[in-house]
From TrEMBL:
Top-level taxonomy: Bacteria, Bacillati, Actinomycetota, Actinomycetes, Kitasatosporales
Organism: Streptomyces broussonetiae
Keyword set, alphabetical order: Membrane, Transmembrane, Transmembrane helix
Protein name in UniProt: DUF2304 family protein
Transmembrane segments: 25-45
Top-rank taxon, per record: Bacteria
C-alpha cells in the first residue's frame, strides 16, 4: 500500500505540473491516465465516485 500511495502522489504532482505548464502532450495524458488507474485502486475511490455522481446529479438538475 505504501508504494501505491507514493506512486499516486508522484503522478498527482506530475499531472499538476503538466496542467500548469499548459502543454498537455501524449506523454502527459498517459501520466494522467495512470493517475486515474492508481486512484481507482486506493481507498479514496468510493469518495471520488460519490463526489462525481453528486456533481453530475447537480448539473443535470439545472435548468437554463
Amino acid at each position: 500500500m505504501a508504494v501505491s500511495v507514493s506512486v499516486v502522489l508522484l503522478l498527482l504532482v506530475l499531472a499538476v505540473i503538466f496542467v500548469r505548464n499548459g502543454g498537455l502532450k501524449f506523454s502527459h495524458a498517459l501520466v494522467c491516465l495512470l493517475l486515474g488507474f492508481y486512484l481507482a485502486g486506493t481507498s479514496v475511490a468510493p469518495t471520488i465516485s460519490s463526489g462525481l455522481t453528486a456533481t453530475a446529479d447537480l448539473v443535470s438538475s439545472l435548468r437554463p
